[in-house]
C-alpha cells in the first residue's frame, strides 16, 4: 500500500520530515509518496499532512494567501492525520498569543512563541511520550510551549512541567523537532498508529 504524504514546504526541514515519514511507513510495510505543498490543489490528494517549523507569522500568511489554509482544515474535518511541529504547532493552535499569526484552529491549545528561549538556548532532552515505550530524543530549537490546553486536546508529553506534545482528534502537535533525529517514532505515532480516513 502507498500512502500520499504532503509536507507543507513553505519553510522548515522538508527533506528531513519526508525521510522520517518514509521510514515510519516502511516499518508498517507501506510506501510513502511525499509531495511538497507550496500552493493550493495538493492537500486534497494527501492521506496525511505535515506542518513543519520555520517562522509562524510567515507560514500562516502564505497558507492564507495561497488558499492552503482552508484545504488543511478540510483535511482535518475529513479525519485525516496531521503532524504539526514547532512553528507548525503555533499555526495549528487556536491561540498563538500573537495577532500576526493567522491560526488554523486545529489544536485546542494556547501557545507561547519562543517560550524556551532563543537559538542559543536550544537543547536536547529524553522525553517520555504517551504511546512510546522508550523516551524520545527531543530537539528543542526556539521552541514554543503550550500555555493552556483546552478540553478537546490531550497532553502526550511534558517537559519541566510544561506540555510539549498534544493530540486533538487527528492532529498531533509538538513543540520540538522530531525530524532532527534518526528516530521516526513521533511520525509513526501521528500517522501510522491512528485510524486513517479512506482515500
Describe this protein's structure.
The chain has helices at 14-26, 56-66, 68-77, 87-92, 185-191; strands spanning 2-8, 31-37, 48-51, 82-85, 93-95, 107-112, 123-127, 136-140, 145-149, 154-159, 162-168, 171-174. By secondary structure, it is α/β, with parallel strands linked by helices. The protein has a single domain, classed as Class I glutamine amidotransferase (GATase) domain (Rossmann fold, 3-Layer(aba) Sandwich). The strands form 3 sheets. It has a 7-stranded mixed β-sheet, with helices on both faces. Helix 1 links the parallel strand 1 and strand 2. The relative contact order is 0.18. The model has no long low-confidence stretch (mean pLDDT 91).
Amino acid at each position: 500500500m502507498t500512502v500520499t504524504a504532503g509536507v507543507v514546504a513553505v519553510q522548515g526541514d522538508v527533506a528531513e520530515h519526508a525521510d522520517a515519514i518514509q521510514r515510519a511507513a516502511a516499518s508498517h510495510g507501506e510506501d510513502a509518496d511525499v509531495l511538497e505543498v507550496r500552493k493550493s490543489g495538493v492537500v486534497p490528494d494527501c492521506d496525511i499532512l505535515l506542518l513543519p517549523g520555520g517562522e509562524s507569522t510567515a507560514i500562516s500568511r502564505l497558507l492564507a494567501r495561497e488558499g492552503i489554509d482552508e484545504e488543511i482544515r478540510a483535511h482535518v474535518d475529513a479525519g485525516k492525520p496531521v503532524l504539526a511541529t514547532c512553528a507548525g504547532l503555533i499555526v495549528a493552535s487556536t491561540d498563538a498569543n500573537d495577532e500576526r499569526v493567522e491560526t488554523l484552529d486545529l489544536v485546542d491549545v494556547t501557545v507561547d512563541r519562543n517560550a524556551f528561549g532563543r537559538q542559543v538556548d536550544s537543547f536536547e532532552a529524553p522525553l517520555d511520550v504517551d504511546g512510546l515505550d522508550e523516551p524520545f530524543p527531543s530537539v528543542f530549537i526556539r521552541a514554543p510551549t503550550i500555555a493552556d490546553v483546552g478540553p478537546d486536546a490531550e497532553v502526550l508529553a511534558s517537559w519541566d512541567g510544561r506540555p510539549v506534545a498534544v493530540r486533538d482528534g487527528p492532529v498531533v502537535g509538538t513543540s520540538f523537532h522530531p525530524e532532527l533525529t534518526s528516530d521516526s517514532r513521533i511520525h509513526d505515532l501521528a500517522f501510522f498508529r491512528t485510524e486513517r480516513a479512506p482515500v
